[in-house]
Design goal:
By secondary structure, the chain is an alpha/beta fold. The protein has nine helices and five strands. Strands 2-3-1-4-5 form a five-stranded parallel beta sheet. This is Adenylate kinase.
Amino acid sequence: MNLILFGPPAAGKGTQAKRLVVARNMVQLSTGDMLRAAIAAESELGLKVKDILASGGYVADEIVIALIRERLPEAEAAGGAIFDGFPRTVAQAEALDAMLAERGSQIDKVVRLNVDEAALIDRIETRFAEQGRSDDNPQVYKERLAKYNAETAPLLPFYAAQGKLAEVEGMGSMEEVAARIEAALA
């Protein structure tokens, strides 16, 4: 099974993806985690994307698509992928569909976490205080949220038209949200 966890920044996608990795033995493909690892390693890619991420910008499609393509064999061997933070645009979604089709696969389900914007700001402030991630300061978050609403939210009709979109209430405890996701996947 290949699934996409969809929702604005700080909606809990990463938390739920990690839970699904354990529960379903899938591979989490988080472009954000991959890019932050490249920055921490001070690789050539990390140096290229550091300022982009710190300012709340999106990394070029070619880079994130290449990162995903590189990790697909690992996901296939595990029995599926959880895409977290990818795709972010219709162009990326089309590229992902084509990549998977080349491999005889597809996206099976898109789970959208519906969350309250004020609660997201609280999450960001807490995460920034605890982890100090430069892409999580409140000002950068507002820019990321605006980009999400302008560029990523249009993916909803794209996946709804394919009959793959499941709406899940994303507010509540981690366990409550996890139970809702499991019900959507059943």
